[in-house]
Amino acid sequence: MPLRDLLLLIGGPQGSGMETSGQILTSALARRGYGVLSDREYYSNIVGRHSYVHMRISSHTIPRSLTYPVHLAGFVDAESVFTHTFDIASGGWLIYDAGTDPTKITRIPSMEPQVRDRLLGKYREHGIGETVKDVIEYLEKEKGVNIVPLSFKLILNMLRQKYNMTLGQAQRFRSTIIFAAMAALLGLDADSVSYGIERRFRGREKVIEMNKFLASKLIEEIRSDYGTPLALEPSSIDIDKLLIATGNDVVGMGKIVGGLRFQSYYPITPAADESTFLESHESLVVDGEKKGNILVFQTEDEIAAIASAIGAGLTGARSATATSGPGFSLMVEALGWAGMNESPVVITYYQRGGPSTGQPTRGSQSDLLFTMFASHGEFPRIVLASGDPEEAFYDAINAMNYAERYQVPVIHLLDKFLANSTFTVPIPDWGRIRIDRGKTIFKAEGDFKRFDKSEPISPRPVIGSGAITWYTGDEHDEYGHITEDPINRVEMYEKRMKKLEIADKEIPEEERAKLYGSGKDFLLLGWGFVKGAALDALAVLEEKGLKGAYLHLRMFIPYPSRMVREILDSYGAERVIAVEHNIMAQASLATTMNTGFKIGRYILKYTGRPIYVMELVDAVQRIVEGGEDKVVLTYGE
Amino acid sequence: MPLRDLLLLIGGPQGSGMETSGQILTSALARRGYGVLSDREYYSNIVGRHSYVHMRISSHTIPRSLTYPVHLAGFVDAESVFTHTFDIASGGWLIYDAGTDPTKITRIPSMEPQVRDRLLGKYREHGIGETVKDVIEYLEKEKGVNIVPLSFKLILNMLRQKYNMTLGQAQRFRSTIIFAAMAALLGLDADSVSYGIERRFRGREKVIEMNKFLASKLIEEIRSDYGTPLALEPSSIDIDKLLIATGNDVVGMGKIVGGLRFQSYYPITPAADESTFLESHESLVVDGEKKGNILVFQTEDEIAAIASAIGAGLTGARSATATSGPGFSLMVEALGWAGMNESPVVITYYQRGGPSTGQPTRGSQSDLLFTMFASHGEFPRIVLASGDPEEAFYDAINAMNYAERYQVPVIHLLDKFLANSTFTVPIPDWGRIRIDRGKTIFKAEGDFKRFDKSEPISPRPVIGSGAITWYTGDEHDEYGHITEDPINRVEMYEKRMKKLEIADKEIPEEERAKLYGSGKDFLLLGWGFVKGAALDALAVLEEKGLKGAYLHLRMFIPYPSRMVREILDSYGAERVIAVEHNIMAQASLATTMNTGFKIGRYILKYTGRPIYVMELVDAVQRIVEGGEDKVVLTYGE
Amino acid sequence: MASNVARYKTDVWSDWCPGCGDFGIVAAMQKAFAELDLDPAQTVVVSGIGCSSKTPHFIHANGVHTLHGRAIPFATGIKLANPRLTVVVNGGDGDLLGIGAGHFVAVGRRNVDITVILHNNQVYGLTKGQASPTLRRWEQVKSLPRPNIQDAVNPIALAIASGYTFVARGYALWVDHLKELIKAAIRHKGTALIDVLQPCVTYNNLYTADFYKGRLYKLEEEPGWDPIVHEPSIDEIDEKVARAWEKALEWGQRIPVGVFYVNPHVETYEERIAKLNPLYQEKPIALQEIEENGTPAISREDFIKLFNKYIVEVDRR
Amino acid sequence: MASNVARYKTDVWSDWCPGCGDFGIVAAMQKAFAELDLDPAQTVVVSGIGCSSKTPHFIHANGVHTLHGRAIPFATGIKLANPRLTVVVNGGDGDLLGIGAGHFVAVGRRNVDITVILHNNQVYGLTKGQASPTLRRWEQVKSLPRPNIQDAVNPIALAIASGYTFVARGYALWVDHLKELIKAAIRHKGTALIDVLQPCVTYNNLYTADFYKGRLYKLEEEPGWDPIVHEPSIDEIDEKVARAWEKALEWGQRIPVGVFYVNPHVETYEERIAKLNPLYQEKPIALQEIEENGTPAISREDFIKLFNKYIVEVDRR
Ligand SMILES: Cc1ncc(C[n+]2csc(CCOP(=O)(O)OP(=O)(O)O)c2C)c(N)n1
Ligand SMILES: Cc1ncc(C[n+]2csc(CCOP(=O)(O)OP(=O)(O)O)c2C)c(N)n1
Ligand code: SF4
Ligand code: SF4
Ligand SMILES: [Mg+2]
Ligand SMILES: [Mg+2]
Questions:
Q1: ipTM > 0.95 for the complex
Q2: pTM greater than 0.95 (yes/no)
């Protein structure tokens, strides 16, 4: 019976093309209308450490979460076989390089000793030996995994002979072996695979030809040996155009649609890809018509990044910067300047594992409270967080709208999970897009009361508009000149803070928090990338007889206190469970601070890997049925 | 009848010696055993803007708060007369320069237009004209203020003739006129005044002579004209040695006693004076015996300040840095490194008016939440706050103890009010001083598991001890080498965070929050410099029939949740009033976050000037008796 | 002309110490602006934090008083977003060469068309007289409890090493001479530094007006002095740099002021961007229309074309 | 000797790309440490963040892997607190000359006795190949979507302008030559820079081993080359600086490596402190006893004497 839903895993050393395999598969699948979501896990390393792509494919819906075990795995090296020994479903399929059979787990220099020792412990438990062969046997015999052993060496030699290439060049085609073998088992047709190859290598004819040659040869052979045991049922998803993009890309697209004109950045994982995306789209020319252009500015550090973005914003350019924890830590002082000077600027903040350099390429949600209170003194700011690519797209636009409407810095929080995952999503809905420049003025004259106190939000003639304005980080009068008068101080302080009250009135609470489901057994409280796993877990739990709901927090300043308090009260302290990628349960603390409602049940994960549906389901059961207070999740390598 | 308690005000342009006047008076008074507290208010300016010293003198207690109106005022310029028109008590005394009589308020360039316009409005209300003369007449006639008009010109000319000096040189003696005239009215004896002069100008014989000459002459004349209307009763304070010091000095002394060896800094108000104090005490030599030495290191910026302090700490030197808001904003990234690397470092944080450059020379308590959550990611830190010079002294020592004992960064919060006020305080009690270096090790060898997981707090051999250790801001193994293993991640993350739980157990809650009084009508909840005003307000309110208590918060991480929750519950939400120098009521938010107790009554001040007892008393009455929710205080220029 | 100067004055009281060299710098700026007939509304004075950085409030033009050490990156953002603006940076020696040294170096690598006026008073004025990065080793100005033990940074040498294309030194009390330097710097296309020796009457008792008197001399009065790179050959650049460098090291009985080095042949950052993306020149990004009545300038159809590479047409077969 | 090198190796796997120049730098360091017979427990390798900054983990000596751009101030704190330690800094070109440029300049003003090894690969390696501050204008390495439009900073010139007293350049693949430079730099008393040309095989397709082959030449083999200031006269310093500067600008068909400039006559920061405060020399502040059984070394009596100036004896009359 064809499958509706499938999970797969591609593993290999960093730099060996695992991402390429995933991309080609994704395009091929999208071409046939399947929904795909893939998470990319990699070390802070350029070449050699273990990396993998974890993918969910669906014929009936756009996937939003991941889980284990997987039905299909393809590994180019021994390290992957070892690392993911326990990730494959009984009855699942495994493609691997039979040439690695004799390799011992103790002989892999790129494997971290902690990982090795941990795996060895488990091997002992399960009576598995130390070689790849031993693992394969275990999988085959004990777990009923179907094994597809390939000789990478023979395959690549064949290719080398045909195209007369060096071993190094041939190594690049390890990714081809993987996606081709997978396509074979998935029953993907040759055209869609070709489509995937062409899309990935656009313009590089020779590479396309070689890939197609190798892929079709492998597909044919493997299919003749194994058939199409993992064939998918035809897609029933009713969409005719699918955008394939990462979270980074989607935010970049949102910024472009939203009118971004200046983006500054200093390279940092996992934010830099957004800026690189924008750099490739600096000229907005459509059919020869000039729609404008963007300046992407690589600065000497993150202090210069935010300072230059604020400067650009003063002249009327919609401006933003994108960064991650260490970079944001350096932006804190200038954030306060923007607050004090009622200057719009957007900081797109991709959270990764902290503290300090932490786990630079892993995901986390541990910077929320920091962003809420960063910088000395008090000033209004808006903090919003996106949980999936759709949210990320519209939020990128709204962040710029809020920044100009309320004349405040806006922090748009995302996490590495979202940033580096690849999604298939529908084209955005133009009906939901508005550009709101608030009281920005492009024509004015004379000395201007930039900080006119008569209303909390003053008209904002940009520098260059013809008006003359002054700005200062010192407390100032309506013209922006320094004054230390205590009464002016109080008025200006309150003027600034009142803008938050206005935002709190104007932005509907329903946009700031969203309740999914209505089951009364429990309420999950989460934010960011937790959303997908939470929603999918609800469905699974419902099948198990537990009816719950998920409250998704979208904006933390201004916090939707009334609505959230009401919902939380309707559950009571015992039935609310915070689900977060941090140890402090930061969103729950922010909630307590804003509502006085104290949350006492937690499901937390801080390994740097995403929350998987199966472990979330289990944790909820342990809390709701087992009476535990807190469950710490740790699944995933 | 001699007075027990007196308030005075000295005003003049920045750079005209008002501080000197205050210092000499303070020494003279301390010599006779009086308690003195003086606040210094000044602009972010070097020469010319209005500044003043606001002082409380007591014969029976060490003063801890200020209030208005004052009984005695001495002004060297017209701007002071205008600025403080409404600060003098009916029946009080005013010394001023009669030469300023014709000066109009509209003709003072150094006066900020906002101040001028505000005063003009009040003058209109009260029917006062625009000249100094008009103000003096109003004070004399309407308010019964006793006026002591002096001709500064004649006095200084007399001095110029005697000592053959230029006008510029003579101008320096304006401060002498003020303190001498005040000493006269206060009935201070000649010896104590001489003592004050000698102490202030130690070693500068000529200056001492001239000051003594002028002072004794003025005292004689004024006393013969006016007597000693403000004579104080003899001191009944039972102390034989009084330390005269600012908050900055006291913290410096605490650090020296506590064994500080490395202090880095980048100049910033109001923190720099502490480092300058330390610079003057780099050699700790007593009677020829070498007790050690301190290195004070002026860096290129605050990032280098904290980085070098952490570096020094790694080698075993007790190290600290002192800064204020803008500087701390730049330290945020390295703070996280210290947290991740379990490295002791103390940041002495003097809060000033924010956000951004804000009000650089004014006080505030608006950085609490920032310090609690500063830096990306999660790691343990200790945040403590001092409310008076005694607390500041012991806290400076304890901050270093906590840093080494728990191997965490410690943020010691103070505010400008405390930092720049001058106090007379007893010599510290050595019985209360302990130095605790925790698990610091100075002799060790071999490759060392610096981050041994077997206990949350690992032995810490310093670099140079003979051991070999590694540190990294990346997540690491027990040796300090990078690893991304998810299980090690969880263990290390939890190891670090557990240190906070240990601190929470070890540091008694009574040291972290302190309840003063037991009245049940209301509970004031405050921190930092609020303490003095709150305690004195309690006494005043009690006389008015309102019996309350004051809960003084001393440590915010780890927060004394159990004790505070219990106390708050015993009052109930309606009777707890947060008293703070900020707009968000930050300590109350921290309290809600930690206890779930929501506070709904506020007395807030954010003009940058201290809370005065009389306005606090009034505000409490408005809330407790008048039913108001929130009172914003604004008294003081 | 004289009356024109008034156009650049504000009625904000300058709260500098009487006699402070900063007054001379502001006067020179106002005169220079007047003689260049700059439109105050299209001119921006950007500063850091310090006594010197209060400058924008006293000049009638757009003023952006930023953060300690960060004037250059703020100014860069302003200039790049709207290259039609004339952008002048004022900062102290602590501001530009201490905390801001990283930005000082970085802007030289870009040659953004802005003018940097360094108020060089050898002290941190506003924080009460600590040693700044231009105070020399073992010197001890008034407020220091002990002599300075850091070496001085040489602003001229550092600017040249960092790629500034116009490098000069002025003296705060020689207002007309300084005015000419400011005019030349503003006219120059590229990053310009004017290191202005600025007596701080309150804290600097070493580098006083008296000290400078008799020591300062004008480079342009030296026979044969020609700081300008005429042909952009490596050889001429080398030679001009070497001569400028030599003059930069001169300090003592004779201290040069005037123009040390000018290389007008280096493309500005703005020109470099325009080379890669000609659209950049047509209309400053700050002034481009991005919406009409709230509807984005990029339509759904535009989106599909722009991001065509990312879009898959589903072909279900 | 050879076996001694093993003493400086850890068993941590170097996860650099095969062929990366960083391997050569670590090898040279280990050899230099061995030949100097440094005590690993009294040696500290401090680094920033980047591929290059993983270095400390591969060297068996104390290792402090700090923050991007901040290795120098961390190292300064370590060295000043315990001057008996040998302190070596490793950082990338982005690390030391981009985000860390302010500290790079500041340490030169102090002449702290540390050695800075700059891994100069013209790219930001660990963040996937963006242009670093040493990539030249209009060059386009692999990962750049468009050519670089910033000028390169010249590490040699910047170090000299900032006051470094030992300035050299090495090549990562000439391990023995580099080893000698490292030994000389560590032996030198004062701040030393070694700019190491380091091929990044993954992202830098311009400055490859092939590129350097044939272009590099050794200064010490140039007839008459003498980079050392022998007499600390202004004239000799001027001359040596000018020659170093000229060599610093050389880049193209011929690229010099070796020692550019050495001035052994400048006091180190540690010496300057000791001059003001002789106690500093006697025992490193890191190792001073501050307590006995929890009782502070400063007693109440000491306190009263130390702060005598602040204490008033009450005299009630
Ligand atoms: C981040 C930060 N650190 C410190 C300060 C305090 N501060 C204010 S002005 C100043 C130095 C001023 O010196 P300089 O730049 O030379 O200007 P000057 O006052 O001499 O004109 C400092 C350190 C600050 N405002 N911000
Ligand atoms: C504050 C901060 N910003 C950005 C980063 C991200 N980052 C990590 S390594 C690196 C650059 C590395 O380049 P370089 O210093 O030249 O070292 P290389 O990798 O080339 O050896 C950057 C920008 C960071 N870790 N911290
Ligand atoms: S302190 Fe110095 S620089 Fe500042 S205003 Fe006074 S004289 Fe000028
Ligand atoms: S990316 Fe470049 S610098 Fe980094 S390890 Fe690989 S080759 Fe070396
Ligand atoms: Mg200065
Ligand atoms: Mg590099």
A1: yes
A2: yes
